Amino acid sequence: MTRVVVIDPQPAIRAGLAMLLRTEPGLVPVGSAVGARDGLELVSVQRPDVVILDPHLLDADGLGTCRRIRALDPAPRVVLYSADDDPSLPVTARVAGADGLVEKSAPEEELFEAIRVVAGGQTALPALDREQLDAAAHRVDAEDLALLAMLMDRTEPSDVAATLRLDRRKVARRVEKLLGRLRSQPPRSIPT
């Protein structure tokens, strides 16, 4: 049985997912939360296998919340469940440590499959093309390119810290800065 927590600001989404999960063999909803604060508390109490998380919460940034969830011990797997048509989300999902990404408009079977895949230790993230990678590389400072590359390759946080010769808190601050740049800034112009 895969235990699932839902964190989403919309009551209809939370209720609908709870109902759908109850009908799907092997998936067990163990709670839902509105935002980051109550979601993190619920996750630490229920210890789910998978968290379905909206990347846009009302009380905090969902991608930052994803990072905090993935830093727990033991860390549940996270599937971002988004209605947003943000072309940078496949990149920022990886930087935040998400294990899967599913659009809310996708058929429910796609969400169920993503939950099963990530619960099995794999990822359910869309493939990235060269254009997406180039756009991400041009949004970050040159000193953060190695960090971006390691996060895209899903390098373990302890290995990232060791490679960069930084403690985990400094790495966490740089990742937050990196996420901010990837989400909010237009790409830097490329010198010709």
TrEMBL record:
Database matches in CDD domains: REC_NarL-like
Write down the Gene3D superfamilies for this protein, in alphabetical order. 3.40.50.2300
Every Response regulatory domain range? 3-119
Pfam family for this entry, one: Response_reg
Please verify whether the record's keywords include Phosphoprotein. Answer: yes
PTM 4-aspartylphosphate: list the residues: D54
Phosphoprotein in keyword set: yes
- Entry keyword set: Phosphoprotein
UniProt-listed SMART domains: REC
* GO biological process entries: phosphorelay signal transduction system
> Which PANTHER family does the annotation name?
HTH-TYPE TRANSCRIPTIONAL REGULATOR YHJB-RELATED (PTHR45566), NARL SUBFAMILY (PTHR45566:SF2)
Q: What is this protein's record name?
A: Response regulator transcription factor
